[in-house]
Amino acid sequence: MKTADSKLIANFMGLVFHDDENQYYNEDGLHIGNTLQYHTSWDWLMPVIDKCYQEHMSKCIADAVMTCDIDKTYEVIVEFIKEYNNNLK
Fold it and tell me: DSSP letters along 5-69, please?
């Protein structure tokens, strides 16, 4: 499930997956790699948190970050993005 959720986050962040290379690139064409690390790295997750706040201040996200638990924060971010995407439809 984390793979699908990480792909959801990657899409939200504007990353593009190139099937022919099996690699991710950001919207500026910068090579990111072939492994998404949103669920294991605060360095990866913090820009997502920042973008979520830009879209909509969320008390749930703030509360999750305050726990310093990356798993909890990751789950809350995924739920936020799912709800955000549903509202765009």
Answer: HHHHHHHHTT-EEETTTTEEE-TT--EEES---TTT-HHHHHHHHHHHHHH---HHHHHHHHTT-
Record the tokens describing residue 55, joined without a space: 């879209």
- The string over 42-73, giving b where at least 16 C-beta atoms fall within 10 Å of a residue's C-beta and e elsewhere, is eebbeebbeebeeeeebeebeebbeeeebeeb
* Torsion sign across C-alpha atoms 71, 14, 56, 53: positive
Candidates 21, 27, 22; CA nearest to 10 is: 27
pLDDT of residue 38: 96
In the prediction, which pLDDT does 1 show?
62
pLDDT tens for 44-79 read 999 999 999 888 878 899 999 999 999 999 999 999
Global pTM? 0.88
